[in-house]
Design brief:
Elements: H1 13-23, H2 33-45, E1 54-58, H3 67-80, E2 83-88, H4 101-106, E3 112-115, H5 119-129, H6 146-149
């Protein structure tokens, strides 16, 4: 887990991503998302920094850790935030379904699930973030979480 807010403030998107990637020590190293979120929740959630915030997670959801821990920590995060937005660069892939154990564990606690493979996708992310304060972003026609992971009744709307 690495805070990259300052690095992403550069006006040039390529330079911003370059600066952010230099800060992330475990880039492409396989993540333990649940453990990272537990550290975030324990350090920042308890102090109230996440309370009412829009939290953006940028990950393909391939987690080396315990998916139950990831689900628990996402639930903790979702309780205190205004919105949780998950950006997945694999979502654009034809036939993609969020079946990776980590992604499946996280999705019930995500308010918006968006692509993150291109500049256009990141521009869409800004629209999702500035969505007028709506808590949930409805799923587009044809993309229902239930298609990939089961009952929709206990899930948040995903787009």
């Amino acid at each position: 887990m690495t805070r990259v807010t300052r690095e992403l403030t550069h006006r040039d998107p390529d330079k911003a991503l370059e600066r952010a990637s230099r800060q992330v020590a475990d880039w492409s190293g396989g993540t333990r998302i649940g453990e990272c979120l537990r550290a975030f929740n324990d350090r920042w959630g308890v102090r109230g920094l996440a309370r009412g915030a829009i939290v953006v997670v940028l990950s393909d959801g391939w987690d080396r850790g315990n998916p139950e821990m990831l689900g628990e920590q996402m639930q903790r995060l979702a309780r205190v935030t205004h919105r949780v937005v998950w950006v997945n660069p694999l979502k654009v892939t034809p036939g993609y379904a969020p079946l990776a154990r980590g992604m499946a564990a996280a999705l019930p606690h995500v308010d918006a699930f968006v692509e993150g493979h291109s500049l256009a996708a990141l521009e869409h992310l800004t629209e999702v973030i500035h969505d007028g304060g709506r808590k949930k972003t409805p799923a587009p026609a044809g993309m229902r979480l239930a298609d990939a992971t089961g009952s929709l009744a206990t899930r948040r709307s995903i787009s």
